[in-house]
Amino acid sequence: MPTPPVRALPVRPRRARGARPGAADSARATLTPETWIEAATEVLVDQGIDHVRVDVLATQLGVTRGSFYWHFRDREDLLRRVLQAWRERATVALTRRLESAGRDPREQLRDAASLPFRGRAAAKAARIELAIRAWARRDAMARDAVDEADAARLAHHERIFAALGFGAAEAAARAFLMYGYEVAESVLHRQGSTAQRERRRELVERLVSQPLAR
To answer: pTM of this prediction?
Structure first.
């Protein structure tokens, strides 16, 4: 007697761990590109660039991998937009806010020098920047983004020193010293008490803003 043909069972798509049926459909409506970018940034900071993968992010957000492709072409597209978001938040918007105040250049200089001291927001920004700079050591796209950010920030500082009356070459040199100090304070934020860090800031401000004796 012939064996009846075996009927193939329908294959159900796999869901991300923790996702409920229909979660992918609802995620398409509720998750925004910014949600993915923020999740990718958190993974970058906590685990490094090698762990910023679609499967890792989908699991973390409780959705399927397919939900990712509603917003991004591929992983490279996501990484590019992570860098764009960092540039906008940490350079463009910040510089715009500092310059729009329209205050005396000495006050603008004090504002710039105080950036590493602004509580949790400054600490979070420093962690993100350190992670991106580590990424930039091995990736050309990230390196270009960091170089562009550094150049824009230095240009902002140069404008401050030019407004204080320094010539172009000296304004550029003082801008580099000031920016280098800000980066150092962000990296070495555990060095010294709050009072010691404040004294360092005041000393650096005086040093970079006063003309040299001839």
So the answer is: 0.81
